Amino acid sequence: MKLFVLLSVLLVSALVAANPVSVQDVQTREDRVVQSGSFDGWFSSTRRFGIQEDYVITAFTITRVSGVATWAQLDGGVGSNFVSIRVTQPFTIPLSPRYYFEYEIRGQPQTSTL
Q1: 77: phi > 0 → left, psi -120 to 50 → alpha, else beta; which?
Q2: pTM of the predicted protein model
Q3: What is the dihedral sign for C-alpha 39, 44, 45, 48?
Q4: Are 27 and 59 in contact (CB under 8 A)?
């Protein structure tokens, strides 16, 4: 039994050494979702995408690839480090998103204005 435990520990150690943890990109994504429905047949979700605090967004694009949905920018965007959008779609059963969007956020380090 002790030999089995020892071999297991060695195997796990070898796997960890062979697959090192990758360092995340400087511009990390923070995705927050708030969802709601309405009685008039629409489903809405608010999403917030963020990058690192000492970076600012220089460009933001979002493209609807498929599905019936619209989007609107709520807050943030170019010049800040986050952008919030609201996606609205018809209320369907089962409650799962019926749209597909692609988005791209470009940023750069924030420059001091002193």
Answers
A1: left
A2: 0.56
A3: negative
A4: no
